[in-house]
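Revision sheet: structure tokens.
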Amino acid sequence: MPVLPEVAKTETKEGLEAFVSYWYSTLSYAYETGDTKPLESASGPSCGSCAKVRTEVTEWHSDGRWMAGGKMHVEGVHSDFIETAPAEYQAVVQVYQDTTDYYLADATPKGSVPRQPAIGDIVIAVFDGSGWKANTVEHLVK
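Predicted:
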């Protein structure tokens, strides 16, 4: 279960960067376990890509199916910590995901998504007084 670092509870550059790393740990946890609650708690209601991942993970982990692997690795997070809207900030992330294997309920392999080179993502997060929420998580290049 991912643990939110204390610094990630602050509206600071260090807090945002720690939160972004934490958000990816909740994504990793969802892929590995099928439990999307930590991811949902760290994501704002307007985060479309967050909802898309939640749906994919939930659907794949139903009817006895499961995923193996898929661990997210954050190689770096950077933010200039400039407010782009009230209490909204951006961070750029270098991240990659381990190979993800998909299995049917009878343990038959269904497919695999191999590890790819690290990519750049942008995370737009809002601090609402009680903590950070990811409002947008998108690849910088498709």
